[in-house]
Amino acid sequence: MIRSFNSLDIVRCAVASTTGLSNRAVTLGALPRRGSYWHPLLRLSKLHLSPRTVDSAWVWTEAYQLHGIAVVAPRSGLGSWEVTSLHLASVQSESLAELLEEATGAAAAQGAERVFLRLQEDDPVVEAARKSGFFPCLRETLYQGLPIPGGTRSGSLFDADSRLREKEPRDDYGLFRLHNATVPVSVRRLTGMTFDQWRASQEQPPGRPLEHVFEKADEIRGWVRTARRKANGHLAVALHADDRAIMQDVVDSGLKRLTKAKVVNCLAPEYETGFQAALEARNFEPVDQFVTLVKNTGKTATELQRGRSAFASVDGP
Q1: Sign of CA dihedral 117, 266, 250, 280
Q2: What's the rounded mean pLDDT across residues 251-271?
Q3: What is the pTM for the complete model shown?
């Protein structure tokens, strides 16, 4: 049985914790861990009276036993949501697909045009998600390594520390243009083609993010985001293809801003080969592989079909 979350499920969740409900969903804010089982439980306990929370949390039960919980929430705008938690006791394709359908339907009722779900690439949940209308749009590698001491000099003629400035609100459209120049159209068709769709789809890293941009000829050509929560640092980089020669300097500048972190996590998209090479040059190692799926819940079915064709052409037969 699939239904919306209610207050009695708090007790069922507490009982289910003894048998284990592993979280299969991966969000940027939870990396490198997928998040404790108790975190969504405590959140739901506090907010279950909120209409949005009830509509966004769904449970799968059989014979009064809890088999799964799916929670969806907006990213940076109501047009783009993501599955923030997918706690499962088992993977039973038909019921799991129905659970995801109900959760994404609740998001669509609140204005979601698309819902994202990130999973480990080899997770059997991927197949169930596809049965409920999700389609793969992006593969990513999680790299882990150490920060660079702040006083380290690279010896490069490009001084990233002086050429990068803090991002300002007026930079958003310039960053959207950089996004269009660096992300393949096959991905953008699925994740959002317009400025509003791009902005709504932005993920929030853990901790307080600091963003810097690199300009050339009054055009934003590079972007660096750093964030830290306790011992875990996070780094993201985007750089125009014509400026890839300075990728190592830009990456190093971000690593120097994370000196208080014990480990740095970097989620590198498959198409960002320059970013991956720069990380490996600093002895970062790949530790996990993810696939992000998206389900179109709005009126853009044509975009989804085009994206499917493009993704299939990359995968081959």
Answers
A1: negative
A2: 95
A3: 0.86
